[in-house]
Amino acid sequence: MARPRVLSGIQPTADSFHLGNYLGAVRQWVTLQETHDAYYCVVDLHAITVPTEPDALRRRSRVAAAQLFAAGLDPERSTVFVQSHVREHTELAWILICLTGMGEAARMTQFKDKSAKYGESAASVGLFTYPILQAADILLYQADSVPVGADQKQHLELTRDLGQRFNHRFGETFTLPEPYILKEVEKITDLQDPSAKMSKSSSSPAGILDVLEQPGPLRKKVMRAVTDTGSEVLFDEENKPGISNLLRIQSALTGTPIPELVARYDGQGYGTFKKDVAEAVVEAFTPIRERTEKLLSDEAELDRMLAIGARRASEVARRTMEMVRDRVGFLSA
Ligand code: AMP
Ligand code: TRP
């Protein structure tokens, strides 16, 4: 039997992934390539939904791709590609846009948050249709499973609704995907504000741990992470959100269950615990940073790897679109 298929995407909107991206998404991508037919894309079309400088976009697209390979995606097993290289994404997005209600799109909370930030009238129509392009990314590859963080749940629901609507109106065409969200790491929070998710749009860099950051600053940020009143290392989301976040991080990085960590730091205070968390982060990120730097030192080779990914992805996308065009009623050329 064919392997189930997995697809996910990440935006090239920062000079590094952060710990939330890594634990919430990318690490699962690496695991899933063992059992699934895997497609992962750097979603540059999504990146331009907010004002983006061309040179920064070029640089960040390569940095994103390099980090994916450096984190363990194997180009032999996973198809890693840049979204804009496969023209079918925008074509399918248009068709799905025509199946989406205005009210349905207006309910998307990520749009509401982002448009509030840029100002209602400054937000582009592209930002409004962002989740529909994401639905196209997923449906185009007939993905069974989509590994993401908790913030993407609503977009996955929209994707299923649109896939179902198309199937109902035009005949069975799309696989309806399931989100793949690991509860323990679905929302890594900001080190300075444990009520907010770790995010590149956060106001202060002190709360974000970047994968490509040097050990020195990484250690400093963990040691300065806001901790809660008291001095005991306990998992208590309600009263100790900061320590609970660090416990989740430490547990995910070392594979040690949280209760075992709590027992280990019993009576030791926050200092020793934070030092160990910092070491776990440095240990996880250092090899990824070094491999990323190496991959970025040969852009031609990196671009070649992405061209191979684009060819493989295009093959699948082309087959889906042939079916879609016919079902919608477009004449064949
Ligand atoms: P983005 O950088 O917005 O393209 O996000 C890439 C992936 O990382 C998505 O699957 C997000 O859900 C996931 N992600 C982003 N921030 C976090 C976080 N703080 N905790 C867990 N997952 C996250
Ligand atoms: N919207 C996702 C995010 O902000 C990125 C994304 C674009 C994506 N297309 C996708 C995720 C397809 C999963 C599948 O993180």
Descriptive report:
55% of the residues lie in helices and 7% in strands. The protein is mainly alpha-helical. The radius of gyration is 21 Å and the shape is globular. The strands form two sheets. A three-stranded parallel sheet has the order 1-2-3, sandwiched between helices. The longest helix is centred in the C-terminal third of the chain and has 30 residues, at 299-328. Bound molecules: adenosine monophosphate and tryptophan. Adenosine monophosphate binds at residues 10-11, 20-21, 24-25, 148-149, 151-152, 186-188, 197-199.
Task: Give the key terms.
333 residues; mainly alpha; three-stranded parallel beta sheet; two-stranded parallel sheet; 13 helices; binds adenosine monophosphate; binds tryptophan
List the topology elements.
Blueprint: E1 5-10, H1 19-32, E2 37-42, H2 44-47, H3 54-70, E3 78-82, H4 88-97, H5 102-106, H6 109-118, H7 125-140, E4 145-147, H8 153-170, E5 178-180, H9 215-223, H10 241-254, H11 258-264, H12 269-296, H13 299-328
Parallel strand pairs: 1-2, 2-3, 4-5
The structure holds adenosine monophosphate and tryptophan (TRP).
In a nutshell, what does this entry contain?
By secondary structure, the chain is mainly α. It has 13 helices and 5 strands.
Tell me roughly what share of residues is in helical segments. Answer: 40-55%
User: Which cofactors or ions or other ligands sit in this model?
Assistant: adenosine monophosphate, tryptophan
Radius of gyration: 21 Å
Shape: globular
Estimate the mean pLDDT confidence.
96
Largest sheet: 3 strands, parallel
